[in-house]
Specification:
Layout: H1 2-27, E1 37-40, E2 43-46, E3 55-61, H2 68-82, H3 85-88, E4 91-97, H4 105-115, E5 120-122, H5 126-135, E6 140-144, E7 152-156, E8 159-163, E9 169-174, H6 179-187
Parallel strand pairs: 3-4, 4-5
Antiparallel strand pairs: 1-2, 3-8, 6-7, 8-9
Helix pairs in contact: 2-6
Length: 192
Amino acid sequence: MKRSWILVAAIALGVGLTVRLSLDSSTTEQPVEVNSLLETGSQKVDLYNTDDSRTRIVYFGYTHCPDVCPTSLAVLSSALKELPEDKLNKVWPIFISLDPERDTADKAQQYAQYFHKNFTGFSGTEQQIKELASSYGVLYTKTELKDSALEYAVDHSSYFYFLKPDGSLIEKVAHTLNPAMLIDAIDRLPQS
């Protein structure tokens, strides 16, 4: 009996590692083919404008998030505050809402700006957000909240996606409470 549980655990671990490696390798260094024209405030901006050479640091979340999103954005803000001006000017911190039903472009931008003046907050159509999130392996789902004024929550994975201007993934950093991990990732960025 004990031997069968060990075998099942070993198989599950092997399958899990294989899936994770294939997901991680499938998103690396491939240009993304989605509608990247998102809204921020009252204007539309192309996330993949290659005339803007800054590395994008993208976080997917939503403004009604009670804990993970504000914590993650605060940690990124702390990392940005520790960067010298020349490095700060080479990155573009971005918040993309996974809840376009409630998060207008204005609301996403105001929320992002609360954390750091360099942040840009984006929203788009449900289809745009779904395609964009899917292209980076962002997992999210709407969960109904009975007897709550919020009505629903958006459960989601929590990563920082470092992107080239064309949308290619450079690196993704898991949710952290340590700004040093993000600073290290920024330090690893290719020099231009």
